[in-house]
Amino acid sequence: MSKTFYITTPIYYVNARPHIGHAYTTLACDTIARRQRLLGADVFFLTGTDEHGQKIERAAEAAGKTPQQYADEISGEFRNLWKRMGISNDDFIRTTEERHKKRVQELFRQLRDRGFIYKGTYTGQYCVSDELYVDGAQPGDPCPTCGRITETVHEENYFFKLSAFQDKLLELYKNPDFIRPEARRNEVAAFVRSGLRDQSISRSTFSWGIPVPDDPKHVIYVWFDALANYITAIGYGSKHAGAQDAFKNFWPADVQMIGKEIVRFHCVYWPAFLMAAGLELPKAIVAHGWLLFEESKMSKSRGNIVRTETILDVLGADALRYFLLREVVFGQDGSFSFDALVQRYNSDLANGLGNLASRTLTMINRYFKGEVPYPSQATRTPAEDAIAETARKTIREFGVQFDQFQFSRALETAWGLIAAVDKYIVENEPWTLGEKQDDESRARLATVLYTSAEALRIATALAYPVMPDATAKIWAQIGLGDIKKLALADLTWGQLPLGTKLGDVHPVFPRADKSAIERMQQMEEQQRVPAAEEKPVTEVKLVAEMPAPVASPSAPATSAVSDKITIDDFAKIELRVGIVKVAERVPKADKLLRLEIDIGTEVRQVLAGIAEAYAPETLVGRKVVIVANLAPRKLRGLESNGMIVAASLEGGKPVLAGFLEDVQIGARLK
Ligand code: ME8
């Protein structure tokens, strides 16, 4: 029986449409799944959508839809997008499906029967955005993960005895493969060592969730519901024999891939739930870093997302797949930019693999009537041995690096082979040999083109999991049929059958010019800001527009009656005290800072033209005054929700308004 391989992505919340951050996780898993299939494993690749909880309920309400309608719509978008991206998932689980709901209830029952669930009362802070209980936080405190103000929850809840698992978890983390990379393992171990409290696993103040078995006033905590998908999808808790077999076959998972922000849920709660249920633990939880755009995490709430569709429309799925895996060092954060995408596309795909394929196959067509030529021993030189050796080494190293999740290094290794063959072709000038008619030149030409085609075959085979579509085309052009039938474990130099008849040869990666960048940027801009909303405002103007509540040396005394406002006019302006939580520069905008300001009731994103006067790091923790009821506006594609108040000195230098005494966050200025 062949080895099984079970791989999962997180299931994505349906409060946000998919963006390339989501695509990144999914396609990393897809490449692993595809490679494992070629290696002969019986693969099960799972993804899906996380559809319950207060966050979804509220998002649906804001959109004027029922939670189910809302979830259907966005879950559908995820599925369509994965199809377009060539994602080869074997199942797509939705947490609102009956099969999932029943099986989650079964898991809950199991844990309760085994004595790990009890009823109690929870009073504390909760972050709806992260669906996270924030232990030790006080009313008004921000969520440690996202910075939004937590909400106070006082409910009768079911609790899970997490505290009983502290030692077992610490023991588990001794296995270096369980949490990767190591930095995440250390972080989680430190968290667990600091002490674990029992975890509330039900909610009773809203209803969009799976009812607790035998106590439907409560719904199961959304993270319990969501984490369980990894086993419910393959049949845990099912009464059907077929489904149970799938569970026996595939559990425990080989790889559970996640983003680094949800490590705690996957490496603390998830193994504890499984231990409590007496189930085996996944073999590896692998956490990757974030895709940044304009220097911060790409996310809906920051408004800095890039839609996958834009890239698919202009450059195609394989370009995006290659770029993300090649450009981002797996495990670390990586920046996305359209410039870098197009540059990589041109250098590695159009000029690299694409050019090697088209020049080699075109010459075989021209000089050998489209049949892979027989290399001649007589004209063999050390250069051919060197290419063969590089190819063998590439196959070995690529496998090791890829299987250690070092995708960018693995691709770099494979592209090293392409560069070596390019150099070999240039040095051996097959086009010059092709012009000569003597036997020796022809024999040498056959050797050079065979060597090039064989190296092309190997690079193509290795790149298949990353670029399934383009490599399938090149494979067919070489005349090798269906690339999915390749036995990757046996890949070695010299397997290209002599005399293979080439398929139709045409370019796979046409060069992209500058207009591709502009087109993608425009497509994104149009998505972000409906044309009517956009008001181009310069950063300088933003500062100049700031009202100056304190006497400003440069402000001329106003005397004209028409300049005066009434107290009622002034009352319309809501000035509030806030505290800066996050401050960072906005890329390519010298004067602009992006601030996240806590104003007591919420955390606001505000863009301020003060970067020349204040270094961002000096602002974090500083109290400022903001105009809280200013209509939001967009600057550089980012939404500014309010304005900070500053005096404008001569020459335009801003000085932030502040207080000599301590003031409460959220206090109103009157
Ligand atoms: O957390 N860069 O769902 P989610 C890289 N439903 N990856 C990103 C990213 C970015 N900028 N943005 C999102 C949830 N991701 C829960 C998970 S699992 C039982 C429940 C990826 O929609 C990353 O993998 O917020 C992250 O973990 C996942 O999307 C979270 O998606």
Chart the SSEs and their pairings.
Elements: E1 4-8, E2 12-13, H1 20-38, E3 42-50, H2 54-62, H3 67-84, E4 91-94, H4 98-113, E5 117-127, E6 132-134, E7 151-160, H5 166-172, E8 179-180, H6 182-193, E9 199-200, E10 202-203, E11 211-212, E12 215-220, H7 222-227, H8 229-232, H9 241-250, E13 255-259, H10 263-277, E14 285-288, E15 291-293, E16 296-297, H11 308-314, H12 317-327, E17 334-335, H13 338-368, H14 382-403, H15 407-428, H16 430-435, H17 439-463, H18 468-478, H19 514-528, H20 539-544, H21 567-571, E18 575-586, E19 589-598, E20 603-608, E21 623-627, E22 633-635, E23 638-640, E24 643-644, E25 646-648, E26 654-656, E27 668-669
Parallel strand pairs: 1-3, 1-13, 2-3, 3-4, 8-14, 13-14, 15-17
Antiparallel strand pairs: 5-6, 5-7, 7-9, 10-12, 11-12, 15-16, 18-19, 18-21, 18-27, 19-20, 21-24, 22-23, 25-26
The chain binds ligand ME8.
Overall pLDDT score: 90
User: How would a crystallographer describe the biggest sheet?
Assistant: 7 strands, parallel
Strand content: 15-25%
* Relative helix content: 40-55%
- For the secondary structure, the number of strands is 27
| Number of distinct helices | 21
Q: Shape, please?
A: globular
Low-confidence spans = 529-562
> Roughly how many Å is the radius of gyration?
30 Å
**Can you list the ligands bound to this structure?**
ligand ME8
Distance between the termini: 77 Å
**Alpha-beta classification:** alpha/beta
